[in-house]
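Hi L.,

You mentioned the student needs an example of a multi-chain input paired with its predicted structure. This one should do, with 514 residues in total across all chains.
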Amino acid sequence: MNPLRRIGAGLLDFCQQIGSIATFALVSIGRGLAGPWYPAQILRQMIDIGYYSLPVVGLTAIFTGMVLALQSYTGFARFEAESAVATIVVVSLTRELGPVLAGLMVAGRVGAAMAAELGTMRVTEQIDALTTLSTDPHRYLIFPRLLGGTLMLPLLVLVADIIGVFGGFVVGTSKLGFSPYTYIDQTLQYLETQDVVVGLVKAAVFGFIVTLMGCWNGYQSRGGAQGVGAATTRAVVTASIMILVFDYILTEIFFSR
Amino acid sequence: MTEAPAKIAIRGLQKSFGRKHVLRGLDLDVPAGSSVVVIGGSGTGKSVLLKCILGILQADQGSIRVDGSEVVGASGRDLEGIRHKFGMLFQGGALFDSLPVWENVTFGVRARQRIGRDEARRIAVENLGKVGLAADVADLMPAELSGGMQKRVGLARAVALEPEILFFDEPTTGLDPIMADVINDLIRSLTRAMGATALSITHDMASVRKIADYVAMLYEGRVIWYGRVEDLDRSGNDFVDQFIHGRAEGPITVGTR
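Structure written out for the whole complex:
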């Protein structure tokens, strides 16, 4: 085939995908907001995404905080700016690493599970069955997941920020010779509300991306076990890439603040 | 063609997936209060036909009228109103595997009206009784049931809504001959008792003879023969003869790809 033609077909296909994902998201949000609501489903998703991701996200955060303290100490010692360690740890965590790493971990844990669950429901006709039982799958299945992800990821990131700072604190006081008082003082002194808020906004966007990719890929899956497997992989890969892309876009939007 | 007015009237129905034309101008009348069985080989569009009538798949062209209301092109509230008339038994049962049996059976009822848990349980047990299942099945999870029991629970779920029209998608596929006969008997007795109109798709000839009043033979996306079940053996149609006797030789050629 003509290479130009192939590029064109690929581009058209890509645009069509974006269009159908956007439509899918808008339909789910629109119908979900219009009600009827399913509080039990929303609660279940919030617990599943928020509470059960805590161990994974917490472990990621504590080691990230610890390694950040060590690495920035090594770097800053070269121009005698070791005292900046606490500030570096807290600002990198809240603005950047907290939301991105939590987003990636949740993509692996929650996004994959959603794609697999919805994919299985699709291929076993459970989604069609919902329709015949006067229940809109967008309202009952998709909206609670999107809402749960968007609400719970910021909370997770807030917890991750605190745990991460604690990781830096442990390394700072036990290995790097900071006094506990100085370390906490340094942490809080240069931290601005904006840093945390930017991080939480990012987290909400990432939570939406992860759940949307999980739901969309699961909902669209076809053809039995293999199809569900492919959907799960796609959900994690697309969500991870989109998190990194949107991380840059959001950082640029908030750059001067 | 028949005495009773058509509950479902389909004219010139067309549906394609990409370049594959599945339904190519299908006409079919389902008389009120009778049982029509659509037969035909695998991949002739039987399932697609049911999904088009339910509005789960959007037909490309043609008309589907249910009690005079058009399904093709209907949206939102209209479609929901039409779907209220249907109950469907899916091929694999399509039970929600995260919910116990009793919640499965009353899922549709609870989607339409607010009822308490006790009332819901009572309705579940009553409908399980109709399909010959004991009350203690109500608390089991779908995964704990055999294939035949899953089908029966699926049937209980479909009839719990007391629909005017019941769809059966290959009700006996994957069951042993005795269980298949039990399901056939249930289909017959339940639809009679409810005075419901039934539309089934199957390629099990024993099932056809048991549950059908009228038979429609689907071939290459069209109905090529329609008549009373008593006339099935003297249809004078080579396609029908080949199918009901299960012969490899005849006008119907099975693709080798």
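You could point out the following to them. Chain A is about 85% helix and 0% strand. Residues 40-253 of chain A form one domain.

Best wishes,
N.
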